[in-house]
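Summary for the steering committee. One of the milestones for this cycle was to obtain a three-dimensional model of the protein with zinc ion bound, which we needed before selecting residues for the alanine scan. The sequence and ligand used are listed below.
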Amino acid sequence: MAILLSGCATDPVPIDRSVHAVSQDSRVRYVVLHYTALSAAESLRVLSTEDVSAHYLITDSSPPHVYQLVPETRRAWHAGESSWYGEISLNDSSVGIEIVNLGDSTGVWQPYTPEQIRMLIPLLRAIVRRNGIEPQNIVAHSDIAPQRKVDPGPLFPWHLLARQGLGRWYDAAAETAVLAQLRTEPLPDVGWFQQQLHRLGYDCPQDGQMTPATRRVIAAFQMHYRPSNYDGMPDAETAAIMMAMK
Ligand SMILES: [Zn+2]
């Protein structure tokens, strides 16, 4: 009995682990989605041996192979300089999932395979449950680093994921109603779009100017929520989607 109460044999001093505090939660609050822009073999080599990494890697074989390269309790190096709702350096507080996909490196966007998405959905659902992750905190690398990154790109199926209860989406009925109204009015000014992007988590300039930096943030928003046109220019549909989003 004395041995049972004195903790684990490897403890440097006797430690009692029989009482657990109620005030605790997971250190993981975000999931960041990426494409690798490399072949599966190169992705595995780079993510396991170089100074970048991710918690999970989904290959493009049939069926895809899912590697866990870093335990969720440890930090992987996938996000880089990043910001979401004012939280910076998301490597510290996120799980990163890399999907083998070449992006637009061949001149056209490569689609994700249905099998990759079928693997991703239960993986993501388990990560979200395990860590209590909020829908708006399932993000694209481009959402948290819009000045540097475009992955996982405009072909990533955010809407399909949202229909599975994974990630934030907008109220489609509200968007339709707001859009009809907006078509009869002048477009809100750039400062309004910048305020909305800030409200929705994005690190966006607030200078009222349509600069390349602001355009990249608008493009990141469009790639996620309105991928049919992600030219980064303010338009009525983008405004309506923003208004229809809590
Ligand atoms: Zn990335």
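Key point for the committee: Residues 172-243 form a domain with the Muramoyl-pentapeptide Carboxypeptidase; domain 1 fold (CATH 1.10.101.10).
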